[in-house]
Amino acid sequence: MDPFDPGPSRPHFTVAPDGSTAELARKAAGLTPAEIVAELDRHIVGQAKAKRAVAIALRNHYRRRRLDPELQAEVTPKNIMLIGPTGVGKTEIARRLARLARAPFIKVEATKFTEVGYVGRDVDSIVRDLVRAAEVMVEEEKRAEVRDRAAAAAEERLLGVLLPGGSAEGRERMRRLLQGGELDERVVEIEVRDEPNVSIPLPGMEEAGMNLQDMFRRFMPERRVKRRVTVREARRILEDEEAGALIDREAVSSEAIRRAEETGIVFIDEIDKIAGGDKVGGGDVSGEGVQRDLLPIVEGTQVTTRQGPVRTDHVLFIAAGAFSVAKPSDLIPELQGRFPIRVELEELSQGDLRRILTEPEHALTKQYQALLAVDGTRVRFEESGIDAIAEYAERVNREVEDIGARRLHTILETVLEDASFGTELGDFVVDAALVREKLEGVVEDEDLSRYIL
Fold this sequence. Notes:
- By secondary structure, the chain is α/β, with parallel strands linked by helices.
- The protein has 3 domains: 21-136 and 257-344, P-loop containing nucleotide triphosphate hydrolases (Rossmann fold), CATH 3.40.50.300; 147-246, no CATH class; 350-452, Helicase, Ruva Protein, domain 3 (Orthogonal Bundle).
- It contains 20 helices and 11 strands.
- The strands form 4 sheets. It has a 5-stranded parallel sheet, with helices on both faces.
- Helix 2 (33-41) crosses helix 3, helix 6 (124-145) crosses helix 11 (249-263) and helix 16 crosses helix 17.
């Protein structure tokens, strides 16, 4: 029996639905590699080697933090390069890993960056985006901690709007109505803070725009504006404003930097597109130049961000590419050496495509069944229909262009077009006959296949 084969009896990591973000992060940190793989198996079919590699890398992130501080500084992450054609699960593995770890995570495309000195995004923006992701995560946790106090303060402000200058007894009656939801649709006028909107239209100036916004908040007098909204919306707006006032922004920034440095994960997609010195932009902007700019970030350097200086020594980098034209050895040697773990993902067979349709927790067939059930259409996938969909997907991938599991989306859209449009209500059965009827003519015509599937 394949130990990585998902099944209904396999135990999996769960947490209480009301668990805080911080508590989720603590529980996720204690996962063993086997438990991490089991979690990934719930959503991703196959690719056992890649799952094992990222599970070990994530566990090592946790192991390093348990070492003595002096040794911690010496242990660097073993960055990973995922090699395989499009649509086999590279991005999904990284995305699920970050969600599981409750770690700051960003996905970037290597082709979006330009060499220093050229117009476009510079590689330092990777670190800025990572810290911003960490900041959003920390702020969400801090808001949860002050939610009750913010709600109480917002309620008092709302009562002042609903019953200005009222007696204590009248205020309590109004409070009961408010808490019972009886006033939710009443329209009120509230006064809220007017956030400065400073936009910097030039590419590569995102950090300057953020700094300008900070400057406006810090030195410009606070402006208040009036808004007419329902009580329900007013409660949400006021709670959000009160929570923001209760949060220590300096503490949020400090914790965001710590998390980005200690647990951050950066997924660099399409790294093969900058291998071999290929042009990635106008003029003399080359892939090799972008690689050389990436190198210090991956090796470990300090980057100045809006929140403060951030070191990248212990950020985990996961790179991915199809490498159908270029090879990993076409990357500059220094960058190659910073990705010691290389995993080749397998192409998807017809059997893999069939499993993808049914086995993951939120498989495509389950998604379409839930979507169409909203309009009262009950979709039932027969075994013969699932087999036929997988067969056609594998055939089009082989004969036209291999886009992996993404082909299933286009095929399912074609097969379920009538049900999605609403011409077929009630029971809708997807069997081999229906799949052949919808696809055979398209698949037989190579030009149609290329444009439709």
